[in-house]
Amino acid sequence: MSLILAVNAGSSSLKISLYQRVRQEAKAPSLVLTSSISSILSPPAQFKFIHASTTTAVKHSNTAELPIHDHETAFDHFLDHLKTDTSIDSGEIKHICHRVVHGGDYTDPVSISEETYHHIEKLSDLAPLHNGPALSVIKASIKALPNARSIAFFDSAFHKDLPRHVSTYAIDQGIAKERGLRKYGFHGLSYAFIKRVVAQHLHKDRGALNIIAMHIGSGASVCAIRAGQSIDVSMGLTPLSGLPGATRAGDVDASLIFHYASQSPSLMSHNPSLSKEVHVTQAEDILNSQAGWKALTGTTDFGEITKKADLSAPSSFTQDNPCTLAFHILVDRILHYVGAYHLALRGRVDAIVFAGGVAEQSEELRRAIAEAVNHLGYAAIDERVNKTLDNREGIVINIGKYDGGKRMLVCRTDEQLEMARECSSAEEFWNA
Ligand SMILES: Nc1ncnc2c1ncn2[C@@H]1O[C@H](COP(=O)(O)OP(=O)(O)O)[C@@H](O)[C@H]1O
Ligand SMILES: CC(=O)OP(=O)(O)O
Ligand SMILES: [Mg+2]
What we know:
Blueprint: E1 3-9, E2 14-20, E3 30-38, E4 46-51, E5 57-60, H1 71-83, E6 93-100, E7 110-111, H2 114-122, H3 131-144, E8 149-154, H4 164-167, H5 173-179, H6 188-201, E9 211-216, E10 220-226, E11 229-233, H7 256-260, H8 264-267, H9 282-289, H10 292-297, H11 302-308, H12 322-344, E12 351-355, H13 356-361, H14 363-373, H15 383-387, E13 396-398, E14 407-411, H16 415-425, H17 427-431
Parallel strand pairs: 1-6, 6-8, 9-12, 12-14
Antiparallel strand pairs: 1-2, 2-3, 3-4, 4-5, 7-8, 9-10, 10-11, 13-14
Bound molecules: adenosine-5'-diphosphate, acetylphosphate (UVW) and magnesium ion.
């Protein structure tokens, strides 16, 4: 038996899936188990461990007593739990796929070696909530499973062919080139998964697919996909730009940070209290970790925000409630990109696709976006489907009353499966 472990270090969670390789060409690896540790940003973390063959999850909802306080300790907790599972022989894990958000110039997955590890480490400043935590998990996995090959898969790779005028910032081009200061874009493993399954769902060739996809989770982005290629994405040099997120400000005027505190020069100095794998300046720390929903409402949980928000009145009347304000800010920023990408695609859009923890679970968010874009020829939302989505089978679900126009779809994205598929299909390459 040959097993593939796929590990996805998101900003607020660690999602892990174990697959068995299927020795048949073009067959996806089959799921053995999934595990997740969520709310790492706002403890206590929640731990889940679910065998594919059963529906019963091992859950510890109150993990206050468990020593999980970052991605490394979350992974250790998973490994401890795996050891107690007599049905799994961890010696059979031959490959470990790691989601690494920033790959810089890497446009293909790479096997982890001294050299590639240090390359990813150097990029940590450009993905302060992601690359450092992913590296800590890579290190822990090499120690715990020394016979398995660790492979890094990059979120930025999906956007490697962005048009020059989209990826270029209007700054000195000598400096931009020398320091790699350009738009990279992220959530690429999720967009690759979305592209594949939505094309399948629509019976379209992947190379002919035109969609506006949004991945709205703790980190949030929108991507324009034309003829199967990313032509624009709301995240940029780092995952900070574009939409706000759980703890991220999203786009602000770049000079805002100089006016945020009175002793502005000190904002730009390094904060020695941060771990050695996460070198962020105080300014970056404020915009990446002390902003977003957390700053606006006190919670990083968008589910809690929609529960407390008053969404019955028009957006301009109800903003004394911070949760209502946070909700309308997210909708406003998403619409900004949906509008722009609708034009970038010249109106030739097969579907708007909702994905990521928030967009897959918030009927309120989907309703607000659907109402706003309806006049552009998108299908009107089918409320019966929108409200009962959690109980519906399927990876791609139509939530619009399709009448031949543009569709509204929800895609249950799976970055772990995307990595495992790619790893499995190139097994000989990785074994060489
Ligand atoms: N019922 C819900 N409605 C809206 N948002 C939700 C709901 N449940 C969870 N969420 C949001 O989903 C987020 C997790 O999204 P996910 O994409 O899994 O995160 P990550 O970015 O860490 O991968 C949570 O932080 C929470 O804000
Ligand atoms: C790129 C990014 O923001 O990822 P996540 O949503 O998993 O934090
Ligand atoms: Mg994620």
